Amino acid sequence: MWRSGTVAVAAVAMVLAGTSAVQAGGGGRFTPGAAGAGDPYFPDSGNGGYDVKDYDLSFAYDPATGAITATARIRAEATQDLSSFDLDFLGPLVVDGVEVDGPARWRREGAQELIVTPRKGIVKGRTFTTTVAYHGVPQRIDDPALGTSGWIATSDGVMALNQPFGAATYYPVNDTPKDKATYSVTVTAPSDLTVLANGEKTREKTSRGRTTVTWRMRQPMASELAMLTIGKYNVTRGRTEAGVPSVTAVDTALDTGQGAGFFATTNTVTDWMQRTWGRYPFGSTGGIVDNVGVGYALETQGRSVYDIGTPGRLPSTGTIAHELAHQWFGDSVTPALWKDIWLNEGWATYNDWLYAEATGGRTAQAAFDAAYARAATNPSWQTVMGDPGRDGIYDWSSYTRGAMTLHVLRTTIGDAAFYRLGRAWVSRHEGGVVSTADFRALAEKVSGKDLDALFTTWVYTPGKPAL
Ligand SMILES: [Zn+2]
Protein backbone atom coordinates (compact mmCIF):
# COMPACT_ATOMS: atom_id res chain seq x y z
CA MET A 1 0.00 0.00 0.00
CA TRP A 2 2.67 2.50 0.99
CA ARG A 3 5.45 3.25 -1.40
CA SER A 4 7.94 5.34 0.45
CA GLY A 5 9.60 8.29 -1.18
CA THR A 6 6.81 9.19 -3.60
CA VAL A 7 4.84 12.42 -3.72
CA ALA A 8 1.67 10.44 -3.11
CA VAL A 9 2.93 9.20 0.25
CA ALA A 10 3.69 12.69 1.48
CA ALA A 11 0.30 13.99 0.37
CA VAL A 12 -1.64 11.15 1.98
CA ALA A 13 0.41 11.49 5.15
CA MET A 14 -0.60 15.11 5.54
CA VAL A 15 -4.25 14.21 5.12
CA LEU A 16 -3.99 11.42 7.70
CA ALA A 17 -2.22 13.56 10.24
CA GLY A 18 -4.87 16.22 9.81
CA THR A 19 -7.85 13.90 10.21
CA SER A 20 -9.49 14.40 13.57
CA ALA A 21 -13.20 13.71 13.32
CA VAL A 22 -13.08 9.91 13.23
CA GLN A 23 -14.10 8.32 16.52
CA ALA A 24 -12.54 4.98 17.29
CA GLY A 25 -14.40 2.12 18.90
CA GLY A 26 -17.88 2.35 20.31
CA GLY A 27 -19.67 2.62 23.62
CA GLY A 28 -16.54 2.63 25.79
CA ARG A 29 -15.88 -1.03 25.16
CA PHE A 30 -12.66 -0.18 23.34
CA THR A 31 -9.87 1.31 25.45
CA PRO A 32 -6.32 2.54 24.74
CA GLY A 33 -3.43 0.10 25.14
CA ALA A 34 -0.95 0.91 27.91
CA ALA A 35 1.97 3.23 27.11
CA GLY A 36 4.46 0.96 28.91
CA ALA A 37 5.07 -2.76 29.38
CA GLY A 38 5.39 -2.71 33.16
CA ASP A 39 9.16 -2.83 33.55
CA PRO A 40 10.07 -0.40 36.37
CA TYR A 41 13.60 0.04 34.95
CA PHE A 42 12.28 1.28 31.58
CA PRO A 43 8.69 2.40 32.23
CA ASP A 44 8.21 3.99 28.78
CA SER A 45 9.60 1.03 26.84
CA GLY A 46 7.12 -1.44 25.43
CA ASN A 47 3.38 -1.02 25.29
CA GLY A 48 0.19 -2.87 26.11
CA GLY A 49 -2.94 -4.07 24.36
CA TYR A 50 -1.37 -6.08 21.58
CA ASP A 51 1.13 -8.83 20.84
CA VAL A 52 3.37 -8.37 17.79
CA LYS A 53 3.69 -11.48 15.60
CA ASP A 54 5.96 -10.15 12.85
CA TYR A 55 8.00 -7.10 11.87
CA ASP A 56 8.59 -6.54 8.16
CA LEU A 57 11.07 -3.65 7.94
CA SER A 58 12.33 -2.07 4.71
CA PHE A 59 15.09 0.52 4.56
CA ALA A 60 16.61 2.47 1.70
CA TYR A 61 20.00 3.72 2.92
CA ASP A 62 21.95 6.67 1.57
CA PRO A 63 25.59 6.47 2.72
CA ALA A 64 26.28 10.06 1.63
CA THR A 65 23.88 11.52 4.19
CA GLY A 66 23.29 8.56 6.52
CA ALA A 67 19.57 8.97 5.90
CA ILE A 68 17.02 6.19 5.65
CA THR A 69 13.65 6.07 3.95
CA ALA A 70 11.78 3.25 5.59
CA THR A 71 8.55 1.33 5.93
CA ALA A 72 7.62 -0.86 8.89
CA ARG A 73 4.79 -3.37 8.56
CA ILE A 74 3.88 -4.70 11.98
CA ARG A 75 1.45 -7.61 12.25
CA ALA A 76 -0.02 -7.93 15.73
CA GLU A 77 -2.88 -9.49 17.63
CA ALA A 78 -5.06 -7.35 19.89
CA THR A 79 -4.98 -8.58 23.51
CA GLN A 80 -7.83 -6.27 24.53
CA ASP A 81 -10.57 -4.37 22.71
CA LEU A 82 -8.31 -1.59 21.46
CA SER A 83 -9.33 1.98 20.70
CA SER A 84 -5.72 3.09 20.21
CA PHE A 85 -2.23 1.79 20.89
CA ASP A 86 1.35 2.99 21.23
CA LEU A 87 4.56 2.09 19.46
CA ASP A 88 7.98 3.12 20.74
CA PHE A 89 9.63 5.39 18.18
CA LEU A 90 12.30 8.01 18.74
CA GLY A 91 13.02 11.27 17.04
CA PRO A 92 14.46 12.76 14.99
CA LEU A 93 12.91 10.34 12.51
CA VAL A 94 9.93 11.89 10.72
CA VAL A 95 6.71 9.92 10.35
CA ASP A 96 5.29 10.23 6.83
CA GLY A 97 2.14 8.21 7.35
CA VAL A 98 0.49 5.47 9.39
CA GLU A 99 -2.15 2.95 8.37
CA VAL A 100 -3.89 0.22 10.32
CA ASP A 101 -5.47 -2.00 7.65
CA GLY A 102 -6.52 1.31 6.09
CA PRO A 103 -6.47 4.95 7.15
CA ALA A 104 -5.56 5.74 10.75
CA ARG A 105 -4.79 8.75 12.89
CA TRP A 106 -1.52 9.15 14.76
CA ARG A 107 0.33 11.54 16.98
CA ARG A 108 3.63 11.58 18.84
CA GLU A 109 3.84 12.14 22.56
CA GLY A 110 6.78 12.50 24.93
CA ALA A 111 10.18 11.21 23.92
CA GLN A 112 9.19 7.91 22.36
CA GLU A 113 5.46 7.25 22.05
CA LEU A 114 3.84 7.01 18.62
CA ILE A 115 0.12 6.80 19.40
CA VAL A 116 -1.97 5.19 16.67
CA THR A 117 -5.75 5.37 16.49
CA PRO A 118 -7.34 3.07 13.92
CA ARG A 119 -10.54 4.15 12.20
CA LYS A 120 -12.49 1.50 14.13
CA GLY A 121 -11.74 -0.22 17.41
CA ILE A 122 -9.88 -3.51 17.11
CA VAL A 123 -11.62 -6.47 18.71
CA LYS A 124 -9.56 -8.57 21.13
CA GLY A 125 -8.02 -11.55 19.35
CA ARG A 126 -8.07 -9.91 15.94
CA THR A 127 -4.86 -9.71 13.92
CA PHE A 128 -4.12 -6.34 12.35
CA THR A 129 -1.28 -4.81 10.35
CA THR A 130 0.12 -1.38 11.10
CA THR A 131 2.18 0.29 8.39
CA VAL A 132 4.44 3.20 9.28
CA ALA A 133 6.32 5.13 6.58
CA TYR A 134 9.14 7.33 7.87
CA HIS A 135 12.47 8.90 7.02
CA GLY A 136 15.43 10.75 8.47
CA VAL A 137 18.89 10.20 9.94
CA PRO A 138 18.56 7.90 12.97
CA GLN A 139 20.47 8.95 16.08
CA ARG A 140 22.18 6.59 18.51
CA ILE A 141 21.61 6.64 22.27
CA ASP A 142 24.51 7.45 24.61
CA ASP A 143 23.33 6.55 28.08
CA PRO A 144 25.66 7.56 30.94
CA ALA A 145 25.17 4.24 32.75
CA LEU A 146 24.31 1.83 29.93
CA GLY A 147 26.54 2.99 27.09
CA THR A 148 25.85 3.34 23.39
CA SER A 149 22.99 1.61 21.61
CA GLY A 150 20.67 2.01 18.63
CA TRP A 151 21.61 3.06 15.12
CA ILE A 152 25.37 3.68 15.31
CA ALA A 153 27.18 5.27 12.37
CA THR A 154 30.51 3.58 11.55
CA SER A 155 33.36 4.59 9.22
CA ASP A 156 31.85 2.54 6.38
CA GLY A 157 28.14 2.49 7.17
CA VAL A 158 26.09 1.60 10.21
CA MET A 159 25.74 -0.96 12.99
CA ALA A 160 22.43 -1.17 14.85
CA LEU A 161 22.71 -2.71 18.35
CA ASN A 162 19.58 -2.44 20.46
CA GLN A 163 20.21 -3.67 23.99
CA PRO A 164 18.54 -2.50 26.09
CA PHE A 165 16.42 0.15 24.35
CA GLY A 166 18.02 1.16 21.03
CA ALA A 167 15.49 -0.45 18.67
CA ALA A 168 13.22 2.60 18.65
CA THR A 169 16.05 4.70 17.17
CA TYR A 170 15.35 3.15 13.74
CA TYR A 171 11.99 1.41 13.73
CA PRO A 172 8.60 1.67 15.47
CA VAL A 173 8.51 -1.19 17.96
CA ASN A 174 6.90 -2.73 21.01
CA ASP A 175 10.23 -2.46 22.79
CA THR A 176 9.93 -5.07 25.52
CA PRO A 177 11.53 -8.52 25.74
CA LYS A 178 8.06 -9.80 26.68
CA ASP A 179 6.85 -9.34 23.10
CA LYS A 180 9.00 -11.47 20.81
CA ALA A 181 8.22 -11.65 17.11
CA THR A 182 9.66 -12.90 13.83
CA TYR A 183 11.46 -10.38 11.60
CA SER A 184 12.09 -9.66 7.94
CA VAL A 185 14.65 -6.93 7.31
CA THR A 186 15.12 -5.60 3.78
CA VAL A 187 17.81 -3.05 2.96
CA THR A 188 18.55 -1.31 -0.32
CA ALA A 189 22.05 0.18 -0.42
CA PRO A 190 24.88 0.79 -2.91
CA SER A 191 26.18 -2.55 -4.17
CA ASP A 192 29.69 -2.08 -2.75
CA LEU A 193 28.22 -2.36 0.76
CA THR A 194 27.32 -5.62 2.49
CA VAL A 195 24.10 -5.92 4.50
CA LEU A 196 23.89 -8.37 7.41
CA ALA A 197 21.10 -8.96 9.90
CA ASN A 198 19.67 -11.71 12.10
CA GLY A 199 18.70 -15.04 10.60
CA GLU A 200 19.08 -16.17 7.03
CA LYS A 201 19.42 -14.24 3.79
CA THR A 202 16.35 -14.98 1.69
CA ARG A 203 16.69 -12.56 -1.22
CA GLU A 204 19.33 -10.51 -3.00
CA LYS A 205 18.83 -8.49 -6.14
CA THR A 206 21.06 -5.89 -7.79
CA SER A 207 19.86 -3.22 -10.16
CA ARG A 208 21.71 -0.11 -11.36
CA GLY A 209 24.40 -0.26 -8.72
CA ARG A 210 22.06 -0.76 -5.79
CA THR A 211 21.46 -4.07 -4.08
CA THR A 212 18.36 -5.08 -2.14
CA VAL A 213 18.89 -7.78 0.47
CA THR A 214 16.35 -9.45 2.75
CA TRP A 215 17.23 -11.29 5.97
CA ARG A 216 14.64 -13.35 7.80
CA MET A 217 14.61 -14.34 11.49
CA ARG A 218 12.10 -17.18 11.68
CA GLN A 219 12.25 -17.75 15.44
CA PRO A 220 10.68 -15.28 17.91
CA MET A 221 13.12 -12.49 18.75
CA ALA A 222 13.13 -9.78 21.40
CA SER A 223 13.65 -6.30 19.95
CA GLU A 224 16.76 -5.83 22.14
CA LEU A 225 18.39 -8.65 20.12
CA ALA A 226 17.61 -7.42 16.62
CA MET A 227 20.66 -6.33 14.61
CA LEU A 228 21.33 -4.71 11.27
CA THR A 229 24.61 -3.66 9.74
CA ILE A 230 25.59 -2.04 6.46
CA GLY A 231 29.29 -1.83 5.67
CA LYS A 232 32.32 -3.36 4.02
CA TYR A 233 32.80 -6.94 5.14
CA ASN A 234 34.59 -10.10 4.14
CA VAL A 235 31.96 -12.80 4.65
CA THR A 236 32.57 -16.51 5.26
CA ARG A 237 29.73 -18.98 4.78
CA GLY A 238 29.48 -22.67 5.52
CA ARG A 239 28.32 -25.06 8.22
CA THR A 240 29.52 -26.24 11.58
CA GLU A 241 30.73 -29.83 11.76
CA ALA A 242 27.34 -30.78 13.20
CA GLY A 243 25.62 -29.10 10.26
CA VAL A 244 24.41 -25.72 11.56
CA PRO A 245 24.58 -23.09 8.77
CA SER A 246 27.13 -20.43 9.71
CA VAL A 247 27.82 -16.90 8.48
CA THR A 248 30.71 -14.87 9.88
CA ALA A 249 31.97 -11.49 8.73
CA VAL A 250 35.01 -9.33 9.41
CA ASP A 251 35.16 -5.64 8.54
CA THR A 252 37.56 -5.31 5.59
CA ALA A 253 39.53 -2.58 7.40
CA LEU A 254 40.20 -4.99 10.29
CA ASP A 255 40.79 -8.11 8.20
CA THR A 256 44.39 -9.27 7.96
CA GLY A 257 43.40 -12.86 7.25
CA GLN A 258 41.83 -13.81 10.59
CA GLY A 259 38.41 -14.57 9.08
CA ALA A 260 39.03 -18.31 8.74
CA GLY A 261 40.04 -18.62 12.39
CA PHE A 262 37.01 -16.64 13.53
CA PHE A 263 34.72 -18.85 11.43
CA ALA A 264 36.32 -22.05 12.78
CA THR A 265 36.18 -20.99 16.45
CA THR A 266 32.57 -19.84 16.11
CA ASN A 267 31.58 -23.18 14.63
CA THR A 268 33.54 -25.28 17.12
CA VAL A 269 32.06 -23.44 20.09
CA THR A 270 28.53 -23.58 18.61
CA ASP A 271 28.80 -27.37 18.37
CA TRP A 272 30.22 -27.66 21.90
CA MET A 273 27.26 -25.65 23.21
CA GLN A 274 24.88 -27.95 21.33
CA ARG A 275 26.46 -31.02 22.89
CA THR A 276 26.27 -29.41 26.32
CA TRP A 277 22.82 -27.74 26.29
CA GLY A 278 20.91 -29.19 23.37
CA ARG A 279 20.09 -28.29 19.79
CA TYR A 280 21.08 -24.82 18.58
CA PRO A 281 17.86 -22.78 18.84
CA PHE A 282 18.06 -20.77 15.59
CA GLY A 283 18.41 -21.37 11.85
CA SER A 284 22.05 -20.30 11.61
CA THR A 285 25.01 -19.30 13.75
CA GLY A 286 27.89 -16.91 13.14
CA GLY A 287 29.33 -13.60 14.25
CA ILE A 288 30.34 -10.17 13.03
CA VAL A 289 33.61 -8.37 13.80
CA ASP A 290 33.41 -4.63 13.26
CA ASN A 291 34.93 -1.42 14.57
CA VAL A 292 31.82 0.01 16.23
CA GLY A 293 33.46 1.97 19.03
CA VAL A 294 30.97 0.87 21.69
CA GLY A 295 33.37 -1.24 23.68
CA TYR A 296 31.27 -4.37 23.97
CA ALA A 297 30.22 -7.56 22.24
CA LEU A 298 26.50 -8.22 22.00
CA GLU A 299 24.55 -11.46 21.65
CA THR A 300 22.36 -10.28 18.77
CA GLN A 301 20.13 -13.23 17.94
CA GLY A 302 21.75 -15.93 15.82
CA ARG A 303 24.78 -13.78 15.00
CA SER A 304 26.60 -11.88 17.73
CA VAL A 305 28.52 -8.66 17.12
CA TYR A 306 32.05 -8.13 18.45
CA ASP A 307 33.44 -4.61 18.63
CA ILE A 308 37.13 -4.75 17.72
CA GLY A 309 39.20 -1.61 17.23
CA THR A 310 42.51 -3.05 16.03
CA PRO A 311 43.20 -4.65 12.63
CA GLY A 312 44.18 -8.31 12.87
CA ARG A 313 42.60 -8.86 16.25
CA LEU A 314 39.78 -11.28 17.01
CA PRO A 315 37.52 -11.60 20.03
CA SER A 316 38.91 -14.02 22.62
CA THR A 317 37.58 -17.58 22.63
CA GLY A 318 36.09 -16.80 26.05
CA THR A 319 34.13 -13.88 24.61
CA ILE A 320 32.94 -16.02 21.70
CA ALA A 321 31.84 -18.72 24.19
CA HIS A 322 30.03 -16.06 26.25
CA GLU A 323 28.10 -14.65 23.28
CA LEU A 324 27.30 -18.07 21.79
CA ALA A 325 26.03 -19.31 25.17
CA HIS A 326 23.63 -16.36 25.10
CA GLN A 327 21.95 -17.84 22.03
CA TRP A 328 20.43 -20.38 24.44
CA PHE A 329 20.60 -18.31 27.64
CA GLY A 330 19.21 -14.84 26.91
CA ASP A 331 18.12 -15.04 23.28
CA SER A 332 16.02 -18.20 23.07
CA VAL A 333 15.18 -18.02 26.79
CA THR A 334 14.81 -14.37 27.76
CA PRO A 335 14.08 -12.67 31.09
CA ALA A 336 10.76 -10.81 30.84
CA LEU A 337 12.02 -8.05 33.15
CA TRP A 338 15.46 -6.43 33.11
CA LYS A 339 15.99 -7.03 36.84
CA ASP A 340 16.49 -10.72 35.99
CA ILE A 341 19.37 -10.05 33.57
CA TRP A 342 21.69 -12.16 35.76
CA LEU A 343 19.94 -15.16 34.17
CA ASN A 344 21.51 -14.01 30.86
CA GLU A 345 24.87 -12.79 32.00
CA GLY A 346 25.43 -15.33 34.75
CA TRP A 347 24.82 -18.25 32.39
CA ALA A 348 26.91 -16.69 29.61
CA THR A 349 29.81 -15.98 31.96
CA TYR A 350 29.56 -19.45 33.47
CA ASN A 351 29.68 -20.99 30.00
CA ASP A 352 32.91 -19.08 29.37
CA TRP A 353 34.25 -20.79 32.52
CA LEU A 354 32.87 -24.19 31.49
CA TYR A 355 34.27 -23.96 27.97
CA ALA A 356 37.72 -23.12 29.35
CA GLU A 357 37.45 -26.07 31.73
CA ALA A 358 36.39 -28.40 28.90
CA THR A 359 39.25 -27.34 26.64
CA GLY A 360 42.12 -27.69 29.07
CA GLY A 361 42.07 -24.17 30.49
CA ARG A 362 41.29 -22.93 33.99
CA THR A 363 38.68 -24.99 35.84
CA ALA A 364 35.35 -23.43 36.78
CA GLN A 365 36.34 -23.93 40.42
CA ALA A 366 39.53 -21.93 39.85
CA ALA A 367 37.53 -19.19 38.12
CA PHE A 368 35.11 -19.16 41.05
CA ASP A 369 37.96 -18.97 43.56
CA ALA A 370 39.54 -16.06 41.69
CA ALA A 371 36.24 -14.17 41.66
CA TYR A 372 35.49 -15.00 45.29
CA ALA A 373 38.88 -13.61 46.31
CA ARG A 374 37.50 -10.11 45.73
CA ALA A 375 37.57 -8.36 49.11
CA ALA A 376 34.30 -8.33 51.05
CA THR A 377 34.70 -4.57 51.38
CA ASN A 378 34.50 -4.13 47.60
CA PRO A 379 31.23 -2.26 46.94
CA SER A 380 30.37 -4.55 44.01
CA TRP A 381 29.25 -7.18 46.55
CA GLN A 382 26.54 -4.79 47.77
CA THR A 383 24.48 -4.95 44.56
CA VAL A 384 21.33 -7.05 44.95
CA MET A 385 21.88 -9.27 41.93
CA GLY A 386 18.19 -10.12 41.50
CA ASP A 387 17.24 -6.42 41.39
CA PRO A 388 20.36 -4.41 40.48
CA GLY A 389 18.54 -1.21 39.49
CA ARG A 390 18.23 0.32 36.03
CA ASP A 391 21.79 1.65 35.99
CA GLY A 392 23.21 -1.58 37.43
CA ILE A 393 22.08 -4.14 34.88
CA TYR A 394 25.57 -4.40 33.34
CA ASP A 395 27.43 -4.41 36.66
CA TRP A 396 29.93 -7.05 37.83
CA SER A 397 27.16 -8.63 39.85
CA SER A 398 25.01 -9.70 36.86
CA TYR A 399 28.04 -11.35 35.25
CA THR A 400 30.47 -12.65 37.83
CA ARG A 401 28.21 -13.06 40.85
CA GLY A 402 25.74 -14.65 38.43
CA ALA A 403 28.32 -17.20 37.29
CA MET A 404 29.39 -17.78 40.90
CA THR A 405 25.76 -18.42 41.86
CA LEU A 406 25.48 -21.05 39.14
CA HIS A 407 28.73 -22.64 40.30
CA VAL A 408 27.45 -22.82 43.87
CA LEU A 409 24.22 -24.30 42.52
CA ARG A 410 26.23 -26.87 40.54
CA THR A 411 28.28 -27.93 43.56
CA THR A 412 25.11 -28.04 45.69
CA ILE A 413 22.98 -30.23 43.40
CA GLY A 414 25.79 -32.12 41.63
CA ASP A 415 26.93 -32.20 38.02
CA ALA A 416 24.25 -34.59 36.76
CA ALA A 417 21.36 -32.50 38.11
CA PHE A 418 23.03 -29.24 37.08
CA TYR A 419 23.41 -30.20 33.41
CA ARG A 420 19.93 -31.75 33.41
CA LEU A 421 18.64 -28.43 34.77
CA GLY A 422 20.40 -26.36 32.10
CA ARG A 423 19.05 -28.54 29.32
CA ALA A 424 15.53 -28.55 30.77
CA TRP A 425 15.67 -24.76 31.19
CA VAL A 426 16.48 -24.09 27.53
CA SER A 427 14.14 -26.73 26.08
CA ARG A 428 11.16 -25.98 28.30
CA HIS A 429 11.34 -22.21 27.71
CA GLU A 430 12.60 -22.21 24.11
CA GLY A 431 11.52 -18.99 22.40
CA GLY A 432 9.89 -17.73 25.59
CA VAL A 433 10.36 -15.37 28.51
CA VAL A 434 11.25 -16.27 32.09
CA SER A 435 11.87 -15.02 35.63
CA THR A 436 14.22 -15.91 38.48
CA ALA A 437 11.23 -17.56 40.20
CA ASP A 438 10.82 -19.85 37.17
CA PHE A 439 14.49 -20.79 37.37
CA ARG A 440 14.43 -21.52 41.07
CA ALA A 441 11.27 -23.62 40.72
CA LEU A 442 12.83 -25.71 37.95
CA ALA A 443 16.12 -26.07 39.86
CA GLU A 444 14.23 -27.36 42.90
CA LYS A 445 12.14 -29.71 40.78
CA VAL A 446 15.10 -31.17 38.87
CA SER A 447 17.33 -31.50 41.95
CA GLY A 448 14.65 -32.44 44.47
CA LYS A 449 16.30 -29.98 46.89
CA ASP A 450 15.01 -26.93 48.76
CA LEU A 451 17.19 -24.13 47.40
CA ASP A 452 15.67 -21.28 49.40
CA ALA A 453 18.85 -20.46 51.32
CA LEU A 454 21.02 -20.49 48.19
CA PHE A 455 18.74 -18.18 46.19
CA THR A 456 18.05 -15.86 49.12
CA THR A 457 21.75 -15.43 49.87
CA TRP A 458 23.22 -15.24 46.39
CA VAL A 459 20.40 -13.58 44.43
CA TYR A 460 18.58 -11.36 46.90
CA THR A 461 20.93 -10.46 49.76
CA PRO A 462 23.62 -7.79 49.42
CA GLY A 463 27.10 -8.58 50.70
CA LYS A 464 29.67 -11.30 50.10
CA PRO A 465 28.08 -14.69 50.83
CA ALA A 466 29.88 -17.00 53.25
CA LEU A 467 30.85 -20.40 51.84
ZN1 LIG B 1 26.64 -11.20 27.99
Automatic annotation (TrEMBL):
Aminopeptidase N-like N-terminal domain span: 162-223
Cofactor requirement: Zn(2+)
Family matches, as CDD domains? M1_APN_like (cd09603)
Domain of life of the source: Bacteria
Tell me the first and last residues of the signal peptide.
1-24
Q: Which reaction does it catalyse?
A: Release of an N-terminal amino acid, Xaa-|-Yaa- from a peptide, amide or arylamide. Xaa is preferably Ala, but may be most amino acids including Pro (slow action). When a terminal hydrophobic residue is followed by a prolyl residue, the two may be released as an intact Xaa-Pro dipeptide
GO biological process entries: proteolysis
Top-level class of the enzyme under EC nomenclature: hydrolase
Give the UniProt family note: Belongs to the peptidase M1 family.
Record protein name field? Aminopeptidase N
State the organism of origin: Actinocorallia herbida
